[in-house]
Amino acid sequence: MYNNNNRNRRDNYNGNNRNNRNNRNNDGPFRKRNYQVKSFTKIHKETDVSNYPEILENGKLRVIPLGGVEYIGINTMCVEYGNDMIIIDMGFGFPKDKSNGIDYAIPNYSYVKENLQKLRGVIITHGHMDHIGAIPYVYKELGSPIIFAGKLSSELIREKAREFALEDDLRLQEVTSVTKYNLGVFEISYFRVNHNIPDSMGVIIRTPVGTIVHTGDFKFDLTPYREPVTEFAKIADIGAEGVLLLCSDSTNSCKMGWSDSESSVTPDLTKLVNEAKGRVITVTFSTLITRMAQIVEIAHAAGRKVVMTGRSIESTVRIAKELGLIKVPMEAFVSKEDARYTPDEELLIMATGSQGEENAALNRMVTGNHNDFDIQTGDTVILSSSFIPGNENKINDVIGKLAKKGAIVYHSQMMDVHATGHACSEDHKMLIHLCKPKFLMPVHGDYVALLGQKTTAIKVGMPAENVILTENGTTLDFDANTYQMAGKVDANQVLVDGFMMGDITPEILADRQKLGNEGIVVIVVGSNDIYIVSRGFIEVNENQTHIDAIKSIAKAKIEQGNEQVSQAVSQYIAEKIGRDPIVITVRR
User: Within a 10 A sphere around the Cβ of 587, how many other Cβ atoms?
Assistant: First the structure.
């Protein structure tokens, strides 16, 4: 159990550690970047009040997935009973629709904000950004709740808090798989699971109605890379006690068989690094610490120095090294400056950009826009990551550019250079047998993945009506034996664009899409003439007939005292050119 005295002692201890880290020499491969990011807190709300859930009945347990179902990422869930509420995970992800310049999408916490007096704390299952990435964007407006997280997850959260100048406001309590504590009526405990980042845990939530088991992201790995196996006995014990609701990671539910072990990628990674004649460039998720530890140790054994490029991967490796999760001497790393003088056959570059992100290190290297490195003939590039659904085209585009530059590219569809961190069908069968839940709610996946886990659950004997396929925002109210869908809260993604959060309305996105597809025409009305500016529509000099017609229409409307110049020009363009650009009239 935790009390305030324990928390104060821990806060003092962590504060001293932070001061020591901040006084670190900033030179070398682990150079720290400190900067502030402004956060805007207006949330564009589109609640359908006709279906809004009523006040929670006495004796009912409410569960609301606010993200993480219907798509990959943005994982978060709200659990409520009486006057108490907790949140499990607060992740971000990529927007579900065309991005149109949007950086990220985060969950909509409007319902939580409306019931803020009930919020007792936030529980984090592990440190991947799709489970912690939303914290700095909404932390203050949720009343700076206490966050319970493992040691590695806590350090990753602190790192993000520094970027947003939130570290002084952050209330973090480190936990382990043996920790137990109460948040209001909820009794919280944990069980260790394997994923592809250390410190991953499932959560046990005992409530007055029954017990909820939330797996977080997991797989059953019997030969994990330098970490203990899942606590199967603890899962079996809680199953014997009785589980009302199991919320289970569904990402890989449609993949038959058992999930691959993290150790299974070591042979192929070792072979590729050892046989490479020139530089080796490895690309993976910036918080895939288990994989990065493997890569660094393989490189060190092969006599290669390691250099990181990409802010997120630099900070993650620094944290992992501090916590002893990467076990090589400091001499194994070199700075970017020293990397320039390291022979190609003695260098390994760890880069970000596994999903083809435009501004990530790999894409900048292949397009010649990186400050320190370019792709060159003979480079061995290893994409040690999965192809997240929706990102395939961007990833294949980068692979094509790498090939044109003369690089030799390897990825998970060619060799065992990546192992999934998510349970497959056999893992799910074993989990259900261990937990013996009354109800199962698949989470962390699109509808096909949720349905895949339901199919598996039915195969092992669960009644179909007890497997709940839901949508983000759907409110589920449980008693000890039944549940009902009690309505829906606003779960529309909140879009993050630069420093703006939540101000990006559907109308703005529609304008951006229209600008990208159709272009813009600006009619500039001067005192003596009318000027036409076209961008992304037609070339003015090559389409003089249309330009003259647009001028004539605008002039006629102005002489008539008619202010609907843009509408008249839009109608002409639609009829004569078959296009629909944005048309704006400006008076000088």
Answer: 10
